[in-house]
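Appendix B. Raw example, untouched.
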Amino acid sequence: MHSVPPAVPLLLVLVASACGATTRPDGGQGILPVGSPAPDVEGRDASGARVSLASASGRHRVVYFYPKDATPGCTREACAFRDAWDRYQARGVQVFGVSRDSEASHDRFREEHRLPFPLVADEDGRAQRAYGVASRLGMSARVTFVVGPDGRVERVIEDVDPGVHADEILASIR
C-alpha cells in the first residue's frame, strides 16, 4: 500500500486555500465589483508626503496591486506608469501602487526608478482583502481598479500585461 507523506495533505490545504475567493471585510467574496465604493488606501509619494485615495476624490484614480517591488514584471509595470505620468497628470488621474512590501522597500523601489506616484505599503494585506485581490505565496495578485470621480469602481482589470497596462488604462478613462 502506498502511503502519503504527512506534509502532502498540509500542502494541499495551503494550495487550496490560496486559490479560493478572497472574503472582503464587507462580507463579499472575490474581487470588488464594478459599482462598489472603493475602499480608501494611503501611501507616500516621492516627496514622502502621505496621500490617500479619499484625498484625491473628484477625479479618476487608478489603484493597481502588484506582487513585489523590484521584480521584473512589477518594475516594468511601475516604470510604464512613470513613463506615462505626464499624460496621467494632464488628465487629472492619480495613480496608487499597492503591494505587501514595507515602506522601506517602497522607498528604495520609488527612488531607484524615480516613481512619482504614491506606493501603498499593505504589509498586513488589509487593502488587498478590502479589494478582494487574491494572495499568491503571500503576495498580491496583479489586479487594477479604475475608480471614478464619485469614488466607485468603474473598471477592474485582472489580465494585466505590465508593459502596456498603463497606456491601456489611460486610454480607457474618459
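End of appendix B.
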